[in-house]
Design brief:
It is a single chain. The protein is mostly helical and 170 residues long. It has one domain. 72% of the residues lie in helices and 0% in strands. It contains eight helices and no strands. α3 packs across α8, α4 packs parallel to α7 and α5 runs antiparallel to α7. The radius of gyration is 18 Å and the shape is elongated. About 3% of the residues have low confidence.
Amino acid sequence: MKLLGKHQALLGLLVFFVFEGKAQMAWDLNLLDRLNAPAQSADHFWHSYTGSITYVTVGTPVVLGGIGLLSHDQKLKTYALDAATGMAINGILTVSLKYGVHRERPFASYPNQIFKKTEAGSLSFPSGHTSSAFQMATALTLSFPKWYVIVPAYSYACAIGYSRMYLGAH
C-alpha cells in the first residue's frame, strides 16, 4: 500500500479544516471559548494590536522602498516590490478562500458563547489579518534571513493570530 504523498496529506488537512466536521468544530470552539471572554482590561491592547496590521503590511514595503530609493540600493527596492507583490497575492487568495469556504464569524454563529470585541466583516475563514501578518513575516525572513528579523516578525504574526481569537473574530 502506497503512503500518502505530502501534497495529498496537505489536501487532506485542508479538507478537514474547510468542511467543519463536528470534531473540528468542538476543538476550535473550545479553544476560542478559552481565549475569548467578557470585557477584560487587556481588550484595548489587543484591539490596538490587531489594528496595527494595516500599518505594518503597508508600511513595511513603503519604508523598504523609500530607503532603497534614497540610498540607491537596488536590493532594498527589490525586497519592497517582493513584499508588496506578496501582499497582493495573499489578499487575492485570502478573499477567494473566504468566499469559497463561507464560514461565519464565531460571534455570529455562537452569540451566547463568543463575545464580539471588534468590528469584522461577515466571513471568518481564513483570517485576513493573520494571513497578512504571516505573509509579511515570510517576506522579511526571505529578504533578511537573520534571527533578529525572523523572531520578531513571526512573534508579531503569532500575536496577530491570537488577537483575532481573543477578540472573537476567528
